[in-house]
Amino acid sequence: MLRSSLEQQCPDRTRPPDSDLPIRSLGQQGLTQATWGPEKGREGSGESERSRDKAAIKIQAWWRGTLLRRSLLHAALCAWIIQCWWRLAHTRLSDRRRRIVLQLYARREWAVVKLQAMVRMWRVRRRYLRAQAAARLIQMRWRSCLARGLLRGRYQITATGLVMDMKLWAVPSKPRPCILPCADSGAGLRVSKT
């Protein structure tokens, strides 16, 4: 649009009518631009060119600084996003590891408790079976003595041991013990003869 209006006003494309402004061609497109200020060759044109160059340098420096600040801000935001993601991922990973370690610890503790319970149960069962066998032996001997009519008495089981009150009716020709004394119990036997 600017080109067509300038060509209509000034076919030689050197200057617009009624103006002192020179026309410069811009690039390959053939665009023209009017420059404001004195032409080259006039006095003081070098100072105005220098001031324009300084102004252009200032504008370019400002623009480069703006682009640099934008890119630094973008890089800082990207780094911040990566750091936030890594913190979240690291927290999840450490929680998962902590949970696995806790589960392994709980399994080991459960296995130890189970093993201890089995050993305790085995020991208690063994003790019970020994006591049961001893009780059966005592009952068998007691019943055999009662069946023969040799002994009369009673017995009582207390916390400290076995208390018995017995009476002998007849002495057999061959002494045979009816009740065997237990070596580890401190229970005393009272035998009375009649």
Quick synopsis:
With 194 residues, this protein is of the alpha+beta class. The chain contains two helices and five strands, in the order H-E-E-H-E-E-E.
Please give a structural write-up:
The chain is of the alpha+beta class. It folds into three domains: 36 residues, no CATH class; 103 residues; 45 residues, no CATH class. Helix content is 58%, strand content 14%. It contains two helices and five strands, in the order αββαβββ. The longest helix has 104 residues. The C terminus is likely disordered.
Labels describing this entry:
194 residues; 2 helices; rod-shaped; alpha+beta
User: Strand order within the widest sheet?
Assistant: 3-4-5
Question: What distance separates the N and C termini?
Answer: 151 Å
Overall tally of domains: 3
Total beta-strand segments: 5
Order of SSEs: HEEHEEE
Mean pLDDT: 74
Question: How are the elements arranged and paired?
Answer:
Elements: H1 2-9, E1 23-26, E2 31-34, H2 45-148, E3 151-157, E4 162-168, E5 189-193
Parallel strand pairs: 4-5
Antiparallel strand pairs: 1-2, 3-4
